[in-house]
Write a structure and sequence with these properties.
Distance between the termini: 24 Å
Helix content: 10-25%
Structural class: alpha+beta
Strand order of the largest sheet: 1-2-8-11-10-9
Shape: globular
Number of strands: 11
Largest sheet: 6 strands, antiparallel
Number of helices: 4
Order of helices and strands: EEEHEEEHEEHEEEH
């Protein structure tokens, strides 16, 4: 949805890699009850297990730390999410910050998607230990990275300024 294929790749791996410049991304901190009361039905259900995600209405809610979540959605959904989450008016016991422009996203799908992540990251993404709803921060090619497993493959996100570099590394890894 909205990505572009990385041009010029002759792949020795059975993968498809698409780069997304940005996705709607909100950093949420606070107790689940307070966040849920404030956000109403704007959020997917809160995951109960750290380093997992829940999905509803095309949005993913990632449990990435104690009282800390990331909401990931299509960039087209950002205005509606911003209006319903009202970050600037959030009460003092929670924090909601829109950080959509901070990360560059890559969708890696296909039979060998896990192998590409294994080249980039020390994280074990075998489905037995990093299931379909797995979500965590790790590193990729030596940089802080967010990895999210989806049914069709994996999402990899890095700081926006490193997007071109990671695109080049992925192209080299798959050539």
């Amino acid at each position: 949805s909205g990505g572009r294929k990385i041009a010029g790749m002759t792949m020795t791996y059975d993968v498809d890699i698409q780069r997304f410049g940005a996705m709607a991304l909100f950093d949420l901190k606070g107790k689940t009850g307070a966040l849920s009361d404030w956000a109403g039905n704007s959020l997917p259900p809160f995951p109960q297990t750290p380093n997992t995600a829940s999905t509803a209405d095309g949005a993913d809610l990632l449990f990435i730390g104690h009282d800390h979540w990331l909401l990931v959605a299509d960039l087209a959904d950002e205005p509606g999410l911003d209006a319903s989450l009202r970050p600037a008016r959030a009460p003092s016991d929670i924090s909601i910050v829109r950080i959509s422009d901070t990360m560059c996203w890559f969708e890696i799908t296909g039979r060998d998607a896990d192998q590409i992540i294994a080249l980039a990251s020390p994280l074990d993404v075998h489905p037995a230990v990093f299931p379909e709803n797995g979500a965590t921060f790790t590193e990729a090619f030596g940089l802080k990275a967010l990895i999210l497993r989806r049914k069709a493959g994996l999402l990899l996100a890095v700081e926006q300024s490193f997007g071109d570099m990671i695109e080049d590394y992925l192209a080299r890894a798959t050539a």
